[in-house]
Design goal:
Blueprint (H helix, E strand, L loop, with lengths): L5 E10 L4 E10 L2 E7 L8 E4 L4 E4 L1 E6 L1 E2 L2 E2 L5 H13 L2 E8 L4 H16 L8 E2 L1 E5 L26 H4 L9 E6 L6 H10 L3 E4 L6 H10 L1 E4 L15 H8 L4 E5 L7 H11 L4 E4 L11 E5 L2 E6 L2 E3 L12 H10 L4 H15 L17 E4 L5 E6 L2 E4 L4 E4 L3
């Protein structure tokens, strides 16, 4: 029997949930983090990695992303999914939920077939892991559709309406099924009850629900709010709605698009002060043109223009983003948010929301060795996935003891 290799990652600044730890090293044994030890006295290992003072953090998890590098989930082949996941890994994202926009029955079935084929072939060792699927809609409010195509939106009548969302047999366990919905639509609360009973992670989004409807939805199983502020009824002092309820409800987390276009930085600071970093997840909401620069692109049956990193559909509305979580981290650092809080939002909170905190989200012994290192400019220097060194841009990898 072959011994499990040991790797020590030394000379880095470890980002923990409550502090940045200097003068320590992370020991990786096989797929797991084995220990955190004094950097001056690391154990005997097979490989030593000098991080040269870079920050070492848990891999990031994006729970809301539609595509990147020309790949869109609705039309992605298994090979396209792999290219997308490979790109995300180079950006420091080690896990993600590919996210649909509303489409027809055949469109959903094709997405699930492609995902099933990709995952059945076995997880690639050089690509971010797919942790599940996020259905953004179609059970949302047409008056808050945003860039979603209204003709594909639905109300809920009976459990048979959910057939396509329950289909697909995926070899990955657990395979998270998440849905963003509006509880105020016809049958909305019945929908929440049915999906919660089937193990879905549920979020309110594209909604103008009243506070009472939000409270009922939470009692039925809603735990999250999608792209907070965006595609929700604005906060009003006599009708606080989803936004007001979300700010004060300790039972729900929220996610934010920190691209500098969807939200003013002052609004992010407001949410940070009301919710705290332990109840905020960062998302990209990225679409297929992400990573391709400015230009015009065909996405979801319409022309999306990207200019200066900002998206616009033919009506002039925002249509997703073209950032990755690495960009969001860089923006928050520029806006003065501490790195310990940022990495909670980018990794620990998403992992906890998905029920995967025991495996991912922080640097702790026993957790998966999904780790990233980056410099002061948030340039990725090193990525480790499942204990394997996958990306190392400028990071020295030397034999043990050297």
């Amino acid at each position: 029997m072959t011994d499990v290799p040991k790797i020590v990652l030394r000379n880095g600044r470890l980002i923990l949930p409550d502090r940045i730890l200097e003068g320590a090293a992370v020991v990786v044994e096989g797929r797991r983090i084995a220990d955190i030890v004094s950097d001056g006295n690391p154990p005997a290992v097979d490989v030593g990695v000098d991080l040269a003072g870079a920050y070492l953090a848990p891999g990031m998890i994006d729970i809301h992303i539609h595509g990147a590098r020309g790949v869109d989930l609705l039309t992605a082949s298994p090979e396209g999914l792999r290219r997308w996941a490979q790109f995300l890994l180079t950006e420091g994202v080690t896990g993600f939920l590919p996210t649909t926009v509303p489409t027809d029955e055949a469109g959903y079935r094709e997405v699930l077939r492609s995902l099933g084929d990709y995952l059945s072939a076995g997880p690639p060792s050089d690509a971010a892991r797919i942790l599940g699927i996020h259905f953004e809609g179609p059970f949302v409010n047409p008056f808050r559709a945003g860039a979603l195509r209204v003709e594909y939106l639905r109300s809920y009548r009976q459990p048979d309406d959910l057939g396509v969302f329950l289909s697909g047999d995926f070899p990955v366990r657990p395979f998270v099924r998440m849905m963003t919905l509006a509880p105020e639509i016809h049958g909305g609360l019945d929908l929440v009850h049915e999906l919660a009973a089937r193990g879905f992670l549920l979020a309110i989004g594209h909604s103008q629900a009243l506070v009472g409807e939000c409270q009922q939805a939470a009692r039925h199983g809603v735990r999250h709010i999608t792209h907070f502020f965006n595609a929700l009824a604005p906060l009003h002092h006599r009708n606080p709605g989803v936004v007001g309820w979300g700010m004060v409800a300790d039972s729900v987390t929220v996610d934010l698009i920190a691209d500098g276009h969807h939200l003013d930085e002052l609004m992010i600071e407001l949410v940070r002060r009301t919710k705290g970093p332990q109840r905020i997840a960062l998302i990209s909401d990225a679409i297929a043109p992400t990573g391709l620069g400015d230009g015009s692109f065909e996405v979801w049956g319409q022309t999306i223009r990207v200019s200066g990193g900002k998206t616009a559909n033919p009506a002039g509305s925002l249509a997703g983003s073209v950032i990755t979580l690495r960009d969001a981290v860089r923006n928050l650092r520029r806006w003065g948010v501490p790195l310990t809080e940022i990495m909670q939002m980018a990794s620990l909170v998403p992992a906890r929301l998905l029920g995967l905190e025991a495996e991912f989200g922080s640097i702790e012994p026993g957790k998966r060795a999904d780790l990233i290192a980056f410099d002061e400019e948030t340039t990725i220097r090193f990525v480790m996935l499942d204990g394997n060194i996958v990306v190392g841009n400028g990071t020295a990898i030397s034999p043990a003891g050297s």
